[in-house]
Write a structure and sequence with these properties.
Elements (H helix, E strand, L loop, with lengths): L16 H31 L2 H9 L2 H18 L1 H25 L5 H23 L10 H51 L16 H14 L3 H19 L1 H10 L2 H26 L5 H19 L5 H29 L5 H15 L3 H12 L1 H21 L1 H4 L6
């Protein structure tokens, strides 16, 4: 379908039908993702050992990390909407094919591992395209609001997706859950086809070859007064944040005797805080002194992350997790909004790919080290070190003048 040239939408993003169609497509796709991963985990556990199931669940990570930068080039060269539609079509077809295979026979783990690899490969293209699309459907002054709406969609999908997947498994096993995931992903395609996008001026951001495009994108990030240090801040913030809220939280709940229910309450507190941060950005659209506010929120959030490892009671842990979610959610949403508004739209797929590689490629490396360090030194020191690393990201945001003074368009 040929893209239609449109001016920036005069309406606020949350009232713009074009943005709302995109938001519906994105939410449906994220719901499908959440149902898919629950179905994949269930099917893998049923078909193999826990160790084999873990390998299947991790099979998507490698192709996603390795191919992410190339995915950014593809998103910018072909156009983000076209790439998102194609990615959703491939994911839908792959999930439905495995659903049919599991319904007809019991093939073991190999189709699940193959499906995970397909998802990881497609995600490497899908994620940069998703990041580049908002700048093509609305005005620059609405991108921060769109970032907030996107955060709300992610939170809603994570809350609703798991119960939906559980219902699918309960009523029809893994095949039914996979079929439900495929249907939700498929629902996003007609919505995306109805989204109008703005063309870029001819010849902007493109090179002769894909390799030239990749180098141009990396050069754009490296030389930009805001984007370069912003990527360093994102890397440090995520590196210090992921371990305490993943393996660290599981160990903390077990060590304190709170059990799975207690861990669920802590995650609920975190999700509530992060959702409130996204809602604030979606409602306000622009927060003044965005760079300074991002640095302060990240620094204060790192203190809350460290405190989470020392609180003795469950109620205090839930309250601390809510504060962690609010502060780190606000800094994360503002980082995303600054990335969206500071990057040239012609490079946004590649810029998003760099940010995704930083988050998905580097941060998982901290998990085994955090688990090993906890066994050696205990939870407190690991939480303290993680908080210090996260705080370094806040210090970068505050120390770099161009980043500290960065503003969101109003």
């Amino acid at each position: 379908m040929t893209a239609t040239l449109i001016p920036p939408a005069p309406a606020r993003a949350h009232r713009d039908p074009n943005v709302l169609r995109w938001l519906g497509a994105y939410t449906s796709s994220m719901l499908g993702d959440n149902v898919f991963y629950l179905a994949l985990s269930w099917a893998a556990v049923q078909a193999g050992t826990p160790a084999q199931a873990g390998l299947v669940m991790a099979a998507s990570a490698l192709p996603r990390a390795v191919l992410m930068l190339g995915g950014g080039v593809i998103a910018d060269r072909l156009g983000p909407r076209r790439v998102v539609i194609g990615s959703d079509a491939v994911r839908c077809a792959a999930v439905l094919a495995v659903a049919a295979l599991l319904f007809l026979t019991h093939p073991g783990l190999w189709p699940l591992a193959l499906l995970a690899c397909v998802f990881g490969t497609v995600d490497a293209v899908f994620m940069p395209a998703v990041g580049a699309l908002p700048a093509r459907i609305t005005g620059k002054d609405q991108l921060a609001r769109v970032q907030g709406l996107r955060g709300l969609a992610i939170r809603a999908a994570s809350v609703v997706g798991a119960p939906l997947g559980g219902l699918g498994v309960a009523f029809g096993g893994a095949p039914a859950a996979f079929a439900l995931a495929g249907a939700l992903i498929a629902l996003s395609i007609p919505l995306l086809l109805s989204v109008r996008v703005r063309d870029l001026p001819a010849g902007t951001g493109g090179g002769v070859t894909a390799w030239a495009d990749l180098k141009a994108g990396l050069r754009h990030v490296r030389r930009h007064r805001v984007l370069g240090p912003l990527m360093i801040a994102i890397a440090l913030g995520d590196l210090g944040f992921v371990a305490p809220l993943n393996v660290g939280l599981t160990l903390l709940a077990d060590h304190r005797g709170w059990g799975a229910a207690g861990m669920g309450w802590i995650l609920a507190g975190f999700g509530t805080g992060a959702g409130a941060a996204s809602l604030l950005l979606a409602a306000r659209g622009r927060l003044p002194r965005a760079g300074l506010l991002t640095g302060c929120a990240c620094t204060a959030g790192s203190v809350a992350v460290g405190a989470l490892g020392f609180v003795p009671g469950l109620a205090a842990a839930v309250g601390t997790a809510l504060l962690v979610g609010l502060l780190t959610g606000l800094s994360g949403a503002l980082c995303g909004a600054l990335l969206q508004t500071q990057a040239d739209p012609a490079y946004l797929g590649r810029v998003t790919a760099v940010a995704g590689l930083v988050s998905l490629g580097l941060t998982p490396l901290s998990l085994p080290f955090a688990a090993a360090a906890t066994g050696t030194f205990g939870l407190g020191p690991v939480y303290a070190v993680s908080a210090a690393v996260c705080g370094l990201g806040g210090l970068v945001l505050l120390a770099v003048p161009a980043l500290r003074r960065a503003e969101l368009p109003g």
